[in-house]
Design brief:
The structure holds 2 protein chains of 2 kinds.
Chain A lengths: L1 H6 L13 H6 L2 E3 L2 E2 L18 H5 L5 E10 L14 H14 L8 E3 L5 H10 L8 H6 L16 H4 L7 H13 L13 E8 L4 E9 L1
Parallel strand pairs in A: 4-5
Antiparallel strand pairs in A: 1-2, 3-6, 5-6
Chain B lengths: L1 E2 L4 H9 L4 E5 L5 E2 L14 E5 L3 E10 L12 E8 L4 E6 L12 E9 L2 E8 L1
Parallel strand pairs in B: 7-9
Antiparallel strand pairs in B: 1-4, 2-3, 2-4, 5-6, 5-8, 6-7, 8-9
The chains are: A alpha+beta, B mainly beta.
Chain lengths: 216, 126
């Protein structure tokens, strides 16, 4: 619901329509307990990121700096996972990224993460250290991850509403964070966003990438 | 019971005959299934095959209502992560247990699901 609401503020989102709790609960099961409206769509879409040396970037207005880029892996098979409610690869990639940047979860102003399913966003916010394990669901319900909340998550609408063009999803997250850090996100702008985080994954959470971005 | 180390192919050949086989690392003792190239715990490639009892309990499950095309005709059906008595877990389809009776902790027993030349992992009532 939160991400669909964010999607209404993003003219590039696939779904720009709010949904209600009732609509989610009334939608058909895909795989219990996930219903149709818990699942992200597969989308057509593209995104590009222009990387430049510091020297070149300084000649441009409002460059955004890559503060950290970290990857971590985990067993892929569900049967091998030690705890089905946690994603160790997210926790390890986040720890490495925070270490690289000399920052912590409290320093992050805006997050774009891999909400392929509603529960995935909750588990990811916990893995990224934004909330304690088990506390992410309540935090989302309380609006702490909404625009205007303590730590806005997926202001673009996320995979859920902006859409999930698979291979382009990671770059699209970076595009949103760059837009946010430049203060160019219009009605979905996170006020005074200075540090942004992207989190993307593949292969049953066997591979997770966490990057941190900042501005001057 | 120790047997020569096995491949994914022989794992399924044995599974087809009702034998569930894991591999144990001769260096660190890690137990894994299905068989794989390298030990996820220590990185060695010194496996020996271990026959499993096939008994376990449901650790987590879901009911697939919208199935991949190849299984569309079977939906709804349940798949579960089953924790075997030996301590390792395996994903498989639940058969011969009604969907409303499936719950975490329900004891189950390995059963091969054979369709033509294909063998899949299944679990039925213990």
């Amino acid at each position: 619901m939160k991400n669909h609401k964010h999607g209404t503020l993003n003219p590039k989102a696939q779904f720009q329509k709010e949904i209600t709790v009732e609509q989610v609960l009334k939608s058909a099961y895909v795989a219990d307990p996930l219903k149709l409206l818990d699942c992200c769509p597969f989308s057509d879409g593209g995104a590009a990121v222009v990387l430049a040396s510091e020297e070149v970037a300084r000649t441009r207005t409002r460059p955004v700096w890559v503060l950290a880029a970290a990857a971590a892996s985990d067993w892929m098979l569900l049967g091998d996972k030690r705890d089905l409610a946690r994603v160790p690869a997210t926790e390890r990639a986040a720890a490495a990224a925070y270490r690289q940047a000399g920052l912590g979860p409290a320093d992050v102003d805006v997050v774009e993460l891999h909400d392929c399913f509603t529960i995935a966003e909750i588990v990811a916010t916990e893995g990224l250290g934004l909330f304690e394990p088990g506390a992410g669901g309540r935090a989302a319900a309380e609006g702490r991850t909404s625009l205007g909340g303590a730590i806005p998550v997926n202001p673009s609408g996320g995979l859920k509403a902006k859409g999930h063009p698979i291979g382009a999803t990671g770059a699209a997250q970076i595009a949103e964070i760059v837009t946010q850090l430049r203060g160019a996100a219009g009605p979905r702008q996170v006020a005074d966003a200075r540090v942004g985080l992207t989190h993307t994954l593949g292969g049953n959470t066997a591979t997770v990438l966490v990057s941190l971005f900042g501005r001057d | 019971m120790t047997e020569p180390a096995i491949t994914l192919q022989t794992f399924f050949e044995r599974a087809r005959d009702g034998r569930l086989t894991a591999v144990r690392c001769r260096k660190c003792g890690e137990l894994a299934l299905p068989p794989r190239q390298f030990c996820p715990a220590c990185g060695e490639r010194a496996w020996e095959a271990v026959r499993l009892s096939g008994e376990g309990a449901i650790e987590s499950f879901t009911v697939i209502r919208v199935a991949p095309r190849a299984h569309a005709a079977d939906a709804p059906y349940a798949i579960a992560v089953v924790k075997l008595t030996e301590g390792v877990s395996l994903l498989g389809r639940i058969v011969d247990i009604s969907l409303e009776k499936i719950a975490i902790g329900v004891p189950v027993r390995f059963r091969p699901l054979v369709r033509g030349s294909q063998t899949a992992v299944g679990f039925g009532p213990a």
